[in-house]
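re: ur question from the group chat, yeah i did fold both. here u go
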Amino acid sequence: MSPHRLDPASDETLVKYAEKLEDDHAAWPTWRTGTYAHDDVPTHVEMFTWNSDRSGWIGDKSNFEVARDLIRSAADAGRVDSEVSDEQVYECGGGSSAWDVAQLFVQVYEGGCSEDCPGTHTPECRPGCDPYVDFCHGQECEGDCHGTRTYTPAFREAVALVEYVKNDHPFLNEDDYYEQRNETFEKNLTEALDDIRLSYPYDTAADHRSIVEHASDALWELSHWDPDGLVDWNGAGEAYVHGRTQHFLELGREVMRNEIPGQLAITSA
């Protein structure tokens, strides 16, 4: 289920996450634009990530996708288009391997000084700044427009969601997580059963379907063993053997219940 109550992040918490802008290697837009100029001002920070090579990746993927939609909705609140969220929320990567990490970047501030704003020189300017020679750009000074800079609704929502996962519940939407985990488990189980079936080349397709049906309860129990829907192939093999035994015992009982040619049929009195 989605969060029952999403508390707004405190100012102190917002400041803590906004400090990620100082990590140039993970800051947007330097890596996105391909420009690494010294004065390139980062605007977005990474808030959610996942990749399938990491333990717990289905939970990360579910949170990533649920958070992305909630953050975009917060950014576009009251609008009929997605122009704001297209700028404030950026998704990259597919998360399919250790070299392809899915990342969700969110814009931290809106308003405030433009990048070419010279501002007003104050004691808060960078050390050594000469007001008659240097220009203090944007965030490097207490410019006339400095007080108008605010956190974006997208960033506020993103921080609240991260804090919810960290402190209240591991999943933003529990139903979505279990649905994704079960889909992955069923796919992995089918692959395991197809491999196990090769050990019984004389069994028919109908035999296989019946065996799986007889083993279904034991096979489904395996789904609770791993948070990422992985299948214990030894456990699947044991369950299959049990189901196969039950299948052929049932066939044997049906044969014994049938009338045997040349013998008198047993009838009830």
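okk and heres the other one u asked abt
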Amino acid sequence: MNYLLFMGSAALALGYHTAGAQAPDSTTHKPQWYVGAGAALQQYWDFNTPYVRLKPVNVLVGRSIGARTALQAALQFGGRNQEHSEQGTDYLTGEPYTRYTEEKTRGAAATLLVRFGRSRPQRHLQFDWLVGGTVLFGRERLNATTTKASGKESYKGPVNTSFSPHLVGGMSLRYLLGPHLALGTEFTLNRNIFIPPTSALGILLTGTGANVHLTYRLGPLRP
């Protein structure tokens, strides 16, 4: 009888410890969506033109695909206007003139990143590695107005467009403000794959970027 009681107790204890050991393993990660917005400063190189864009609003959306892995997409718009004025003399007529030029650059960047978390999910401060790519769309146009005593001449240059994919890598720091809200910042480097790093200039043409954003995790809390 004592032997049977001993065996029964041992079986219950073994079953308890086995269930306890399997409980964490049986809990699977359930993907969740998150959205965010912030400010960003990015620099991309497209051949001889450095496209520098200040994006007042950097909109992003992401989805966790593992306990420490997430897929994130971001979309930015921006542009710049450069103005220049000069005075000179027409070498054919000797007539003085004033020339005003304006260069308009507009663009959009779509970025897809994979986030690899290096911190435990329970910690408030999170460190992530970022790897992915960006597709850059650019448009550039030069307009000029020349004013002389005899009249005014206007010139509208052709619209130059560009499309260039970039490789992106970097790091991110996030601070969890609550169960759903987080404050984050990202630092990235990018390379235009159309510009081969076969010279010193090609190596130097590496773009940089940084942003600050707030993200909000949608839905109920899940493991």
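fwiw on the second one: DSSP finds two helices and nine strands in the chain. Strands lie at 33-46, 49-64, 69-89, 96-117, 125-148, 151-156, 160-176, 181-192, 207-217. idk if thats what u expected
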